[in-house]
TrEMBL record:
Gene3D superfamilies: 2.40.160.20
Name under which the protein is recorded: Acyloxyacyl hydrolase
Keywords noted in UniProt: Hydrolase
Species: Aliidiomarina soli
GO molecular function per UniProt: hydrolase activity
Length: 177
């Protein structure tokens, strides 16, 4: 399983963003779901993509691409977990504040997982959709780093049954550079 982490981490740096020079943020998070799952996530986010003008009815969000490595394990059973390699477009809206803003972020992308089950959860396919909903707060006017609370959902959207999915709630930190 240690080899999966190394391969996934290498792939995420190459596939998702091309090079660190085009990256803007590094995200670290950890979380859980009920008493069943524990998770850790490392993500790299691109600079804002300014190529497309968003429709005004969307509220003028910023668009980013976020690549991630996620380790999800069943509580008290290291062998029953899975590793997910994700790539998602993420929209970000400023909700409140100027000096220390609060942001709402949402994304739907894809993830490749190394196991089609995690404990009692059957996922059926190695391809999963990755849904993200995040509230992040820039706690200092001297830095663009943020604290965040995130809800993540992985499922195959009914492509194949069973499709039990995995939900996670995570707390994290964003380091901007």
């Amino acid at each position: 399983m240690k080899g999966v982490w190394a391969i996934s981490l290498g792939l995420i740096w190459m596939i998702s963003l091309g090079s660190v020079a085009h990256s803007k943020e590094l995200h670290f998070s950890t979380g859980a779901w009920e008493d069943q799952f524990r998770a850790g996530r490392l993500a790299l986010r691109s600079d804002e993509i300014n190529r497309w003008e968003m429709p005004s009815w969307l509220g003028s969000p910023k668009l980013f691409i976020e690549g991630s490595v996620n380790r999800i394990r069943v509580k008290d059973d290291e062998e029953s977990g899975l590793t997910a390699l994700g790539l998602s477009p993420v929209l970000q809206w400023r909700v409140l504040g100027d000096e220390r803003p609060l942001y709402l972020e949402a994304g739907i992308g894809g993830a490749l997982i190394d196991s089609v089950s995690a404990g009692p959860r059957e996922l059926s396919t190695h391809y999963q959709f990755e849904d993200l909903l995040r509230l992040s707060w820039q706690f200092s006017d001297n830095s663009e780093s943020r604290l965040f609370l995130m809800m993540a959902h992985y499922s195959n959207a009914g492509i194949k049954s069973p499709n039990m999915g995995v939900n996670l709630v995570q707390l994290g930190f964003t380091l901007s550079f």
